[in-house]
Amino acid sequence: MAPTSQSKGTEMRIAGWVLSVLIGLFLAIASAVPKFMRIEAATSAMEVVGWPMKYLVLIGVIEVGCVILFLVPRTALLGAVLTTGLLGGSLAANLRVDNPLFSHTLFSIYLGVAVWVALWLREEKVRAVFPLLR
């Protein structure tokens, strides 16, 4: 039995929310929390790209703020745009210091694409603006 368009939309929204929550957990737990706790992985990454440690917690707060905006349906588009900007800064910092391309520098692109795919899957209005499927 072929899925109806309504059930297909529901499946897409569920997939979008699952991906959104995974992205949110990653940004909060794997990226922001180490900054708040000043874990060596976060501090050494800041040193490598040449950012002063005084910005460590601020960047973590910005990450959490972007995640919250992205996960709240009413502000999800703003959250995706701001997260894209944050990831662009990360890409530029890693590119500037010649970090490994596929693992460090382009990771921002991978995560940014995942953010927009998640939003596209969960928001019908975004799918209407970017109609990738018919």
Structural overview:
By secondary structure, this protein is mainly α. It has one domain. It is 79% helix and 0% strand. It has seven helices and no strands. The mean pLDDT is 93.
Q: Describe the global form.
A: elongated
The total tally of domains equals 1
Number of strands: 0
User: Main beta sheet, described?
Assistant: none
Strand/helix succession: HHHHHHH
Rounded to an integer, what's the Rg over CA atoms?
Answer: 17 Å
Integer average pLDDT: 93
Find the structural class using helix and strand composition.
Answer: mainly alpha
Tell me the strand percentage band. under 5%
Number of alpha- plus pi-helical segments: 7
Task: Throw out a few tags for this protein.
134 residues, elongated, single chain, 7 helices, mainly alpha
List the helices and strands and how they pair.
Elements: H1 5-36, H2 40-49, H3 56-71, H4 76-96, H5 101-105, H6 107-122, H7 124-129
Summarize the structure.
Helix content is 79%, strand content 0%. The chain is an all-alpha fold.
